[in-house]
Design goal:
2 copies of one chain form a homodimer. Chain A has 106 residues and is α+β, with helices and mostly antiparallel strands. Chain A has a single domain, classed as Arc Repressor Mutant, subunit A (Orthogonal Bundle). Helix content of chain A is 63%, strand content 13%. The first copy, chain A, contains 6 helices and 3 strands; from the N terminus they run ααβααββαα. In chain A, strands 1-3-2 form a 3-stranded antiparallel beta sheet. In chain A, α1 packs antiparallel against α4. At the A-B interface, α1, α2, β2, β3 and α5 of A face α1, α2, β2, β3 and α5 of B. The first copy, chain A, binds a DNA duplex (30 and 30 nucleotides) through α4.
Chain lengths: 106, 106
DNA sequence: TTGACATGCAGGTATTTACCTGCATATTAG
DNA sequence: CTAATATGCAGGTAAATACCTGCATGTCAA
């Protein structure tokens, strides 16, 4: 998993919208997805290319159409590496800050 | 929670390293954090400002020092909004793609 | 008080990014 | 075959980003 590609892919509202659109209906064509975006088709293609590079979307060609499918695996990897780690220490991390704000003896 | 700020903050290796450094030892000063980065202090400050804007890091001034603390809450919010949603549909999403790859009747 | 130390602030630049337009290619329908 | 349709490819531009240098400010210790 390339965390950099995944986070950068997710760091754009258009690409997050594309994921939401695919979540509503998986396997949509480029044309279908474009109907819901207010930009040129070519721009949407570039966004989808980034999502595909991050392995968040997989595509299949069917004739002259290109179908897009969500791949949830990278999101799960992000969870394992970047959420659970901090989640586990959540209480103690907040505790550190609270102590500092209260100005404990030092 | 501002998903855009959080994902953009996470979309840079230096900032993810900063989070890891703070996870190892919470409450570090700017100077301490800089010792582990190969860039000018001013550049590190800019990265920390973005982490703070995304609410991933909180700071407290102590004399002439500035202490940095991780805030795990935005990461948890990301999980709720962007991981669990797709996780729930994980199996069915992969099913869709498998069907397409196998070229079921259509 | 004064010098050392920790950080803040103000620009400047090279790279990346998010758009666009214009044209090419490939597939299907009639 | 031919026209319509779906997508691919090749640039071009304005804005955002990630660095930097230089200097200012604030705090502590001797």
């Amino acid at each position: 998993m390339d965390a950099d590609k995944v986070f950068k892919a997710l760091g754009d509202p258009t690409r997050r919208k594309l994921l939401d659109l695919l979540c509503e209906q998986n396997g949509q064509t480029l044309g279908q997805l474009c109907e819901n975006l207010e930009m040129a088709r070519q721009s949407a293609t570039q966004h989808l290319d980034l999502l595909e590079a991050a392995n968040l979307v997989s595509t299949v060609k069917r004739g002259r159409e290109k179908l897009h499918f969500i791949n949830p695996v990278p999101l799960h990897d992000i969870y394992e590496r970047w959420v659970r780690k901090f989640e586990r220490q959540r209480l103690s991390l907040l505790h550190d800050l609270k102590q500092e704000l209260e100005g404990e003896d030092r």
